[in-house]
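URGENT: need a sanity check before tomorrow's submission.

F., can you look over the Plasmid protein record below? I want to be sure the sequence and structure line up before it goes out.
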Amino acid sequence: MSENVVHLHKPTDPPADSTAPTVLTVVPDAPPTPPAPLWVRSGRAVKSAVTHESTRATARAVARHGLYTFNGGRIVARRTWDGKTGSRYERMIRAAEAAGNLEAAEEWEERLQRFRAARHHRRMDLLHSPVEAAKGVAVGAGMSIGVLVALGVVMAINNGDIGDVIRPLSATIDFIALLIRIVQIVWGPALTIGPFLALLGLWAVGSKQQAAPQWALPANARSSEGEPITPSIVVKALRDLGVPALRNAIKEMGDAGASMLGPIRIAGCGVEVDVTLPSGVSTNEVQGKRRKLAENLTRHEHEVFITIPQAARTVRLWVADSGALDEPIGPSPLVTDDTMTADYAKGKAPWGQDLRGDAAALSLYQRHLLITGLSNQGKTVALRALALWVALDRSVQFLIGDLKGVGDWAMFDGLATTLIQGPTDEHVIQVTEMVEGAVDEMNRRIQAPPGTTFPALIVLVDEAQMAFMCPVKDEDKRPYGGSKSNSRYFMAVRKIHNQGRAVNVLMWQGTQDPTDQNLPKLVREGAHTRASLALGTESQARMALGDKAVDGGAAPNMLRPGLDQGTLVVASSGIDIPAGQAAITVRTHYIDDDAAEAITDRAKALRDGVTTLHAIERGEERDPLADIAAVVGDAARVRTQDVLKRLAALNADAYGKWSFIDLKRVLDGTGAEPYKSDGVMVVGRDRLACALANRPEDGSASASG
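Structure tokens as predicted:
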């Protein structure tokens, strides 16, 4: 008898044979994520509701209208108080005294005295007015009754009815009773509605005055402009500057600090005020907190300038109108006036406007020039604007080296004697030799007889930092760059700085991002006019303008890169600087390439024609006759004196020592000999062309010094 064994536990492994049933394993779903606690969901809902834009707009509207009503009540109360008391006159007196306007203060004080006298007269009249008012009421009532009775008598006589005598009086009494009944009916609702009407009136006053904070106002009514600058705002800004000695001194002053301030004067697109600091407070403590002072005055940092005038312990604040410095200043007179000419010796270049909105003009006479700043801030355009103006003086000559080489100075082709454009080391070598040629011309002029006058020769190098940083050396192992005693470009610039202005040989340089390596100290301090666009640090500002200008408040490092393009801080005796200041901020006119080309076309029309050399020729044989024809250019005739000058500028080594005898020697026998025209010796273009065409093929001669 077999026994069936029944297993009570399910086997974990399926049978191995093929007849075993398929086991289907069911994997249960992951348990659902438990919901967030109720307090978390409630907090999220509350946060979403509170931060929703509709809720915020509603809260602003409620706050706005509530503040309209509250501040409207304050305005009405203030007006009522001002009308009943002399507080308005006293307020105006304090403001006039704070502004230093004693005449206005005396006038307001006189008005206050008249107001008080009139008020006293009215109050004295009130002592007698009750008796006079009672008499007036009695007399008026009696006269009114008499008139009514007389009217009744007339009616009674006319109608023959004695009752008409009191009929007008009775009708008047009935009318008065009717008015009393109307008042009784209206009085109750008026007491209920009256407060709401009063609140509505206060709301209307507050709404009209926009008497609510900026955050509560609707978007179209919010003002981005800063508050007007008043004496109280300036004193409060200084008090909250974070200088303990200044804050304590203002608290101890009986006039709450108003005596520190000079008159607040309108100065261009802003205002200017001198602040005499109390004892124990130095001017650099205020200068060092420019940003905080600007914010206290509800201005941006670039809209407040702090300078040190001549008066001791005084700072001069210039505060711009909000946003005024971001507005363009308009086109240059060089662009708008086609008839403008230049006078290098006596005139001034129209460069732009100062912060007061006045025209800023710069004298270039016998002044070396340095303009620096960060890249792409308008340095080349500012430098070119000066060159464009002085180019309208036909006597001025140019040697130009553009070490950027992107065509910023291309319009001077045909105007400059030499124009080198390019950023390579070869271009630096060419520019260095150009400056050295200017040194030779300077030495030639110095050796001339005393009293000899020379036309201005402007040696202009843009992106001069490329020359100072050039690592190339010549065949004698002398570096072109650097700042050592054997550095060719450095020494050539130094020589022109030392002696050039005496003979009208001037050095103009434009550099960017100055350091001691790319702008050596001796070079930057040799410039008479130093200007700087936006810079990164105060140390760079000192390199650009010098310690004196920076200590006096000049701060090109505070200009905004990219936003204040074309804005320069200038230290120069050639520009009008307010008394006591060491520098002035100028917003320069922008002259684009097309306008610059039009100006140079006018300048070229003033000249007889200039052949521009695009490379410095070194060591080759010269053809004097061809060179003479080249410098004469398209002019029908040129004075021999001018021909000699142009030859010297073309190649100082070959022609720098030439005299009229040398010129005559070369031209004799060619048919192009100098001749007299209008009493002066000239060289004719047509005669030179015939001489070149008719000379034998081997007839060219070399220049011998």
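My own read: The two ends are 146 Å apart (CA to CA). Confidence is low (pLDDT under 50) at residues 699-705. If you see anything odd, call me.
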